[in-house]
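Re: Re: token formats

Sure, here are both.
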Amino acid sequence: MRGSYGRNCEHKKWRYDDLVARMQDKEMLVDWLMAEGLIAGGRLCPLCNEKMTLTKCEDRSDGWKWGCRRQENNKRHKTEISIRKGSWFEKSKMTLEEVLKLTYWWCQDLDQAQIKHELGLGESTGVDWDSFCREVCEISLLENSEILGGEGKIVQIDESKFGKRKYHRGHHVEGQWVFGGIEQDSRKCFLVAVEKRDEGTLLPIIQKWIAPGTIIVSDCWKAYCNLENHGYEHRTVNHSVEFVNEDGDNTNKIEGHWRHAKCKLPKFGVRKHLFSTYLAEFIWRYTHRNEDLFQVFLKDVKQIYAPTMVN
């Protein structure tokens, strides 16, 4: 490979033209993907454990493959491995260019229908890739999670129901309860889907996500009544009579967080086992809002998949 196109090139902010420039030909694209660590820069043959050779391959859309042809002890073997093996691209039938375009547009928050139209994707393919991208967000957040609060810091907590009210007999509300917290002077936050809002459910989540010694501000929900017995300073706002208590405490930031999240999440049709991935996407976008999301996403992909020489 020629290795001449911006190895580990730093970008202030990716533009679509920057991506297109890396896809002028197959050699340039594969060289860039290797330089960025998105596909492996080398492979060891699974039969002889020697380094494989990267060769052109006209019958594959990638244009290149790993190969090994050796003769040892009067025996000859021939081994071929896709350059995608172990990478973000491995299980897709789309071209490398199409996967990169889809990833870029997803990071720009284009509507799924727009992406499907531009790439000519089927319904199921578009849904699957949307899910794959959300899963990257979820794994990244789990692997890089930070504890909120600490001595002298304030965290606001609250619960909210996601989903539309359906006016059946008894005015039953269908949807998903979500419990969350947000640090008052930062973008650090968490959102967790819960089935119950009792102390037995919420307290372990608080202890997992919020450091002891934190000042926790909440409404007067009974599940929070024993927080001071678990190492927290607890301040409350009685929303039936006030929005800000006499000491100036409020839950405005977490309530704004709910409004923003509900605007971004689908109103209907989210299966409960997928709900956490939608929450993860929202938090990922919120946390990295002032960054280049495409760069951040590629960095997360490299950490999760980390293709190596060994198969």
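Second one below.
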Amino acid sequence: MSVATKNLPQLYRFCLLMTGDVAKAQEAFQSTVQEAATRSAKGEPPPDRLWFFDDARRRCLAVSQQD
């Protein structure tokens, strides 16, 4: 997950820009990183950087619609 690690600040900023809310951004960001860690533990790491942003985008949209 070394490629992902250097992209974590960008991923968080992406979540913050998508949601416009610190709490929602943290929720989406943490869920994405947790999913990546779970996949890695199962031997199925995320294939590339784009996976993180795609997953984060889905999660940001979901948390934004929870209002």
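The CA atoms of residues 44 and 63 lie 25 Å apart. The longest helix spans residues 22-41.
- S.
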